[in-house]
Design a protein that fits this description.
Blueprint lengths: L1 E4 L5 E3 L11 E4 L6 E4 L7 E3 L18 E3 L3 E6 L3 H10 L2 E4 L4 H10 L4 E5 H5 L7 H6 L3 H4 L3 E6 L7 H7 L3 E4 H6 L1 H29 L3
Parallel strand pairs: 1-5, 2-6, 7-8, 7-9, 9-10, 10-11
Antiparallel strand pairs: 1-2, 3-4
């Protein structure tokens, strides 16, 4: 079923197996975080209904992603070669969001939730009067930040250098030269890092749930 959010006009795909038969249902819009109500009489392509008290207004400058799959992880790609990285994200099972500039990227980070963020030194160097994307990530609340896997592509260090990643407050550092010349060889080790991150936080979240912290 495809539903258009009446608040932000994001187009959302809801798997048919998750749609209750002959029952109304509701879910949170992945773009604006508003609550969408869908009646059983409505079919594919409908506009989700909001009550006024449930509408969340996105900050100016944030364009909703064209099509988002409910239950599918989203990656924000902040890179001058975003299309290449979008393909990588798709191979890892993420839908990609490509902000056009720092203002959109930073506001989106504060307003939306992403499972992965890929940023590069080239994107950070684009002239702007805002804080860097890395600074924005560093100031996110821990509850939100720990759900993200952050990859930074830059120069001056070796790929997968854990001390560099720790110093930059990212999960993974990739050397620019490796990205440009050996991307195919990086796929497996990147996937392994992702799997390790997901396993660690799966255990962490289960522990929080047991002690009542989540």
């Amino acid at each position: 079923m495809e539903i258009t959010c009446q608040n932000c006009n994001a187009q959302i795909k809801v798997p048919d197996q998750k749609v209750p038969k002959d029952q109304p249902f509701a879910f949170k819009c992945p773009s604006c975080q508003g609550r969408i109500m869908v009646e059983p009489s409505q079919s594919s392509g409908v506009r989700g209904e909001f009550s006024k008290s449930e509408i969340h207004t996105p900050p100016a400058g944030i364009a909703p992603m064209k099509v988002m799959d409910i239950g599918k992880r989203t990656a924000m790609i902040c890179h001058t070669k975003s299309e290449t990285l979008a393909k990588l994200a798709h191979e890892f099972g993420y839908q990609a969001y490509l902000p056009g500039d720092h203002v959109t990227a930073i506001r989106s980070l504060r307003f939306n939730e992403y499972s992965m963020v890929i940023c590069s030194s080239e994107f950070e160097k684009i002239p702007h009067d805002k804080a860097t994307i890395l600074q924005t990530l560093q100031h996110l609340g821990m509850e939100k930040r720990r759900k993200m896997f952050v990859i930074f592509i830059g120069e001056g260090h070796s790929s997968f250098d854990r001390m560099t990643a720790l110093a930059m407050s990212v999960n993974l550092f990739i050397a620019k030269s490796d990205f440009e010349n050996n991307l195919n060889k990086l796929m497996v080790p990147i996937k392994n890092e992702l799997n390790e991150h997901e396993l660690n936080y799966s255990i962490f979240n289960k522990t929080l749930a047991v002690i009542g912290g989540a």
